[in-house]
Structures are given as structure tokens and as C-alpha cells.
Specification:
With about 325 residues, this protein is mainly alpha-helical. The protein has a domain of about 190 residues: MetI-like (MetI-like fold). Helix content is about 75%, strand content about 0%. α5 packs across α9, α7 packs across α9 and α12 packs antiparallel against α13. It starts with a helix and ends with a helix.
């Protein structure tokens, strides 16, 4: 198992290097000058402008800037934001709990609906329910996040007034100092009546929007895995013994079909992080995704580079854990 672990860790090193290079180059292709973030629109002498460029290292060749940045990363320094003059790691640590809370809620929503929906579809293969579910899953997977989010805001939030459309909690009714960064937990710790429900209320719309794509993937993967397992000999034997259908499907078949489904759930973390960028922007959710979008508008190179690297580190780390877990469950994976 240790050899398998080192082999997987070794594969992440070139991934990080390639990711750093692509991120570094892509950010510099965005039109605009990051020096303007510091100097603004006021007049400035060419000498002072050259000094700012030298301080930021922008007067160096791109390859030299990349090597210097890699050296900073090896020391754990993700840079300092040009807009706020704060450490990128500090800003990320303050904003990441909001993104993580939204992602966990979205994944919980996707799993709680996707697993039973896919299981029932497999048990009723070819029925109207099965065909309807597959059609809805394809639609959900193909639906653009920004369009789906705007639709929910327009109808559920504005026209019907069922849920809030922005923020994490009603700051007029409830105010408390953050402890964990997770609004639901902090609302519970504050002891204010109704604060937890209000925080959950704010999670509904962005959680549904962000969880729609993982929901479709989980439902389809559960159905596919269940159809394969339901054709196994031990399932037919259980049915021949006269066991109830719910016991055969829910206990014997579903338990063995969960291995690929759990793997897919873990791999959906990357999709959640990517979808969080648009979701947080649409719903004014103060998380990492919204922060990255704002950093693009400000041409804040250090915040963009550090933010993308930190988010990518989280995604790669989760994928590595899922990979190792899969190796523990199935020994043929780690010995292959």
C-alpha cells in the first residue's frame, strides 16, 4: 500500500508543475495592466511607474517571473494581493469556508436525490420513470449554470419570494462574529433564534444550482452500476430465495454498486469548485469563486495565481484521497 501511495504522490508533482505554468501564462494573456491597481487613474511619472513594475517583478522576462514564483510557492508564499495588500493565503483561508459550506450542501443535495433516483430507475428499467429520469439527468448535466441560476432567481426568489437570492444570512436581523467561517455552524453557536434556519434558507438556491450537475452524474452512475450488479448471480439467488424486492435492491445490490458511485462523488469536487465561480458570482456569495472573478477584473496577478493554485491543490488532494480509498477497497487497483 505504501508503494501505491508514493506512486500516486509522484504523479501529482508534474500535475502541479503543469498547472502552475498554465495558470501563470494564462493570467498574463488577460488584457490589462496590474500596475493600474496600485496607481489608479491619477497621473504618475514614468520613473515612478517603472519603480512599481520593478517592485512587482513585471520588468523581468516571463520565464524569470515564473521561476521566481515557483520559488515562492516552495516556501509556502502565495504572494500578496495588489488590491488589498493582504497575503493571498490569508484571504483564501477567510473565504474558503463559505465555498466549502456551499459545496458540501450542494453535494449533499445531489447525493440524497441522485442515489435513490438512480436506484429506483435501475430497478424499474425501461419504465416511464426510468426514461423520465434519464431525460432529466441529461438536461440537468447540459444546463448552463448561469442560466439555471438566473431562472431560479427570477421565479423562486423574485416572483414567488420563497428564498433569498444573495448573501449567506440576513445581516439586518442577525449579526455575530464568525468563529468557524461556516455560517450554519456560527449561527448555531451564536444562539440567536432563527439564525440557523435563515442561514439554511440562504443556502437553498445556490446549493440547488451548484448541485444540479453532480446530481445528474450521480443518478446516471448509480443507475449504470445498479444495472450491472442486478445481473449478478448472487442477486438472482437472493430473489430465488424469496427475499423482498426492497431487501434485494437496497441491501444486496446497492451496497456493491456504491464503489464506483463513491468514486464519482469524490471526483465531482473539481466540478463543484469550477461551478462555484459562476454560482457565487450570480448569488453574491462571498466565497473563493467570487473573489477570483473580482481579481480578474482588478488584474490582481498574485491573487489569481495563488487562488487558482490553492483551489487546484484542494481538488488534487481530494482526488488523491479518493484514489487511495479506491485502492483500499479494491486491492487489484493498487497492485495493477
Amino acid at each position: 500500500m505504501l508503494k501505491f501511495l508514493w506512486r500516486r504522490l509522484a504523479l501529482t508533482i508534474p500535475t502541479f508543475i503543469a498547472l502552475m505554468f498554465v495558470t501563470f501564462v494564462a493570467i498574463r494573456l488577460v488584457p490589462g495592466d496590474p500596475v493600474e491597481v496600485r496607481v489608479g487613474e491619477r497621473g504618475i511619472s514614468p520613473e515612478r511607474l517603472a519603480q512599481f513594475r520593478h517592485e512587482l517583478g513585471l520588468d523581468q522576462p516571463v520565464w524569470k517571473q515564473f521561476i521566481d514564483y515557483m520559488g515562492q510557492l516552495l516556501q509556502g508564499d502565495f504572494g500578496t494581493s495588489l488590491a488589498t495588500n493582504q497575503k493571498v493565503l490569508t484571504e483564501f483561508a477567510a473565504l474558503f469556508p463559505a465555498t466549502l459550506e456551499l459545496s458540501l450542501f450542494a453535494m449533499l443535495f445531489a447525493a440524497l436525490i441522485g442515489l435513490p433516483a438512480g436506484t429506483i430507475a435501475a430497478a424499474r428499467r425501461g419504465s416511464l420513470y426510468d426514461q423520465t429520469l434519464m431525460g432529466l439527468s441529461v438536461t440537468g448535466y447540459s444546463m448552463p449554470i448561469f442560466w439555471w441560476g438566473l431562472l431560479l432567481i427570477m421565479f423562486v426568489g423574485e416572483r414567488w419570494g420563497l428564498t433569498p437570492v444573495s448573501g449567506r444570512i440576513d445581516l439586518i436581523k442577525y449579526y455575530f462574529e464568525p468563529v468557524t467561517g461556516f455560517m450554519v455552524i456560527d449561527a448555531w453557536l451564536s444562539g440567536q433564534e432563527g439564525a440557523v434556519l435563515d442561514a439554511l434558507h440562504h443556502l437553498v438556491l445556490p446549493g440547488i444550482v451548484l448541485g444540479t450537475v453532480p446530481l445528474a452524474v450521480i443518478a446516471r452512475m448509480t443507475r449504470s452500476a445498479m444495472l450491472e450488479v442486478l445481473g449478478e448471480d448472487y442477486v438472482r439467488t437472493a430473489r430465488a430465495k424469496g427475499l423482498p424486492a426492497w431487501r434485494v435492491v437496497g441491501l444486496h445490490a446497492l451496497r456493491n454498486a456504491l464503489i464506483p458511485v463513491v468514486t464519482v462523488i469524490g471526483l465531482q469536487v473539481g466540478a463543484l469548485m469550477a461551478g462555484a465561480v459562476l454560482t457565487e458570482t450570480i448569488f453574491s456569495w462571498p466565497g473563493v469563486g467570487k473573489w477570483l472573478i473580482e481579481s480578474i477584473g482588478r488584474r490582481d496577478y498574485p491573487a489569481l495565481q495563488g487562488g487558482v493554485m490553492l483551489v487546484s491543490s484542494v481538488v488534487i488532494g481530494v482526488n488523491l484521497v479518493v484514489d487511495l480509498t479506491y485502492g483500499l477497497i479494491n486491492p487489484r487497483i493498487r497492485h495493477g
